[in-house]
Structures are given as structure tokens and as C-alpha cells.
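Bumping my old thread because nobody answered last time. Still need a sequence for this structure:
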């Protein structure tokens, strides 16, 4: 036992991850070994079970705030470390490279990607069918900062997929839990959200800025995964069509008075990739 009792160990790890959250943007990792140790430590806060395969499909486990209260701190820490570029990103690129790795890069990279996207809300169909859209927006708002950070980490991780493992992008996009259609739905809902009724104030402007980050980063994740699929030997027409916007969805989005024009162009480009 590290600190005499499980409770002491839990308290210690909680303090360390909060400490990392506050300092990660300042940390230059000294080597690949340290980078791997920190990654495994942060992944210990991820939802259980980790991503697992059923046949050729992977299933990502979603975040439960009651069971993983420190996941937001872990995601924030990892994103800051990964976003710092050199030397940190070089170490992680080396860790995820398939050549000579003592573990399966598929498992570790998929586990890390699942960790990054875990905060995305699930059961979207239930919210929409029961006209609970405001409740869904409230969940996104509450989780917003670490959804945005997680999507940034996911975008950076996609760039680290080794050339020999481009089929990973196909596996992630076609996951059995419906991660890609869920993210696309969140992007379109937030992109066409109604105008706030209250006069603009710093709090509302901060929320709007956060929603914009989520929509742009979310669509960037989907586009980059689809581009990786096109760059691989796996035909993109084998992907489920519900990961791409349908024509009706694009037309409906065009009619939204508040739709971000830049986001709309990206959405149309992404829709074209599914043709």
C-alpha cells in the first residue's frame, strides 16, 4: 500500500491531478519514460471499462460525474501537456508509434482517445424525443470547458496516428456506441442554437465562446478522422452514413439565422466527404 490506506492513496492522487491541472502548461517533460508514466497516471481517472472491441467495432465508455469526479482535471492536464508541442508532443508521438513498442499502440492510443471524448453527453435521442433540449444544453454548458479541452486533445491525438495504423480512424468513426453521430448532432444543435434572451453580458459571452469552441473543435475532429480514412486503404464509402450530415440537415442548418458561416462551410465540406 502506497500511503497506508486506500483513502490516503486516493487523496494523494486527487491532489496530484489538481496540481498537474494548474502546472501542466508550464511542464516540459524530460523524456519518453516520464511522458508514458504521466499518461498512465491520467488514464487511471478515465471511465471504466476502457474502450473494448466487439468483433471489428470498438465501444467507448462515457463519463459518469458521480463515478469519475476528477476526470475533468485529468483531461485538462493531458491537453495542456499535449498542446505544449515540443518536446512533449514528440515524446507522445514516439509512444504511440507502432515500431518497436512494448505494448499495443492500438490499445493505448484508442484508450487515450476514448478518455479525451468521454465527457460528450450520451442518450441524445432521448433528450430530443422528449423535448428536453434545454436540459441537454445545460449538461453541455456544465461540462463545456472539459468537453472543449477533450476535443482539442482528440484533434491532436488524430495527428499522432502512425501511418501504418490509419485504420484506427475508421474504427473510431464507426464505433458501436455511436460517438461520431453523437458528436455531429451536438455540433449541429449548438451551431444553430437560439439567440440568448438576456442582454449580452460577460457570462453569456463566455458561454457563447465556449459553445463556439466545442462546435469548431468537434467538427475538426470528425473531418480529420474522415481525412485519415480517405488516406488509408479502407474505403470511406464503407462508413455508416449517419456519421455524415444528411442533405436535409445541411439545408435546415442553412436556414438557421445565427449559424456561424465558417462552421457552415466546414459542415458542407464534411458532408461532401460522405458522398
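Sorry it took so long. Here it is:
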Amino acid at each position: 500500500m502506497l500511503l497506508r490506506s486506500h483513502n490516503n492513496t486516493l487523496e494523494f492522487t486527487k491532489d496530484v491531478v489538481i496540481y498537474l491541472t494548474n502546472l501542466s502548461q508550464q511542464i516540459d517533460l524530460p523524456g519518453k519514460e516520464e511522458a508514458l508514466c504521466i499518461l498512465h497516471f491520467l488514464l487511471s481517472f478515465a471511465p471504466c471499462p476502457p474502450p473494448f472491441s466487439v468483433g471489428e467495432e470498438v465501444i467507448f465508455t462515457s463519463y459518469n460525474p458521480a463515478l469519475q469526479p476528477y476526470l475533468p482535471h485529468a483531461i485538462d492536464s493531458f491537453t495542456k501537456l499535449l498542446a505544449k508541442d515540443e518536446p512533449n508532443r514528440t515524446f507522445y508521438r514516439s509512444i504511440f508509434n507502432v515500431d518497436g513498442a512494448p505494448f499495443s499502440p492500438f490499445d493505448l492510443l484508442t484508450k487515450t482517445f476514448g478518455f479525451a471524448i468521454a465527457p460528450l453527453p450520451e442518450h441524445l435521442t432521448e433528450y430530443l424525443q422528449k423535448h428536453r433540449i434545454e436540459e441537454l444544453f445545460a449538461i453541455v454548458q456544465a461540462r463545456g470547458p472539459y468537453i472543449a479541452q477533450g476535443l482539442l486533445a482528440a484533434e491532436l491525438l488524430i495527428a499522432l496516428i502512425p501511418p501504418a495504423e490509419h485504420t484506427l480512424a475508421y474504427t473510431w468513426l464507426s464505433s458501436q456506441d455511436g460517438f461520431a453521430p453523437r458528436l455531429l448532432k451536438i455540433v449541429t444543435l449548438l451551431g444553430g442554437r437560439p439567440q440568448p434572451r438576456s442582454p449580452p453580458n460577460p457570462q453569456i459571452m463566455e458561454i457563447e465562446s465556449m459553445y463556439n469552441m466545442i462546435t469548431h473543435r468537434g467538427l475538426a475532429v470528425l473531418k480529420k478522422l474522415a481525412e485519415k480514412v480517405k488516406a488509408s486503404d479502407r474505403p470511406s464509402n464503407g462508413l455508416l452514413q449517419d456519421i455524415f450530415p444528411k442533405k436535409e440537415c445541411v439545408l435546415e442548418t442553412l436556414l438557421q439565422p445565427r449559424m456561424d458561416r465558417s462552421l457552415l462551410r466546414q459542415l458542407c465540406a464534411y458532408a461532401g466527404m460522405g458522398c
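The CA atoms of residues 21 and 45 lie 13 Å apart. Let me know if any region looks off to you.
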